[in-house]
Amino acid sequence: MKTKIIKINSNNPQQSTIAKCTTVLKNGGIVAFPTETVYGLGADGLNPKAIKKIFKVKNRPSDNPLIFHIANKQDIEILAKHIPEITQKLIKKFWPGPLTLILKKSKTIPQIATGKQDTVALRMPSNKIALSLIKSLGHPIVAPSANLFGKPSPTMAKHVFDDLNGKIDIIIDGGQTRIGIESTVLDLTSKIPTILRPGGISLSELKKILKNVEYHPILLGKKSRIAPKSPGMKYKHYSPNAKVILVKGSTKNSQQKIESLIQKLLLENKSIRLINYKSIQKNPLIISKFIGYEKDLIAKNIYKIFREFDKENADIIIVREINNSNLGFAIMNRLQKAASEII
Question: Is the pLDDT of residue 322 over 80?
Answer without folding.
Answer: yes
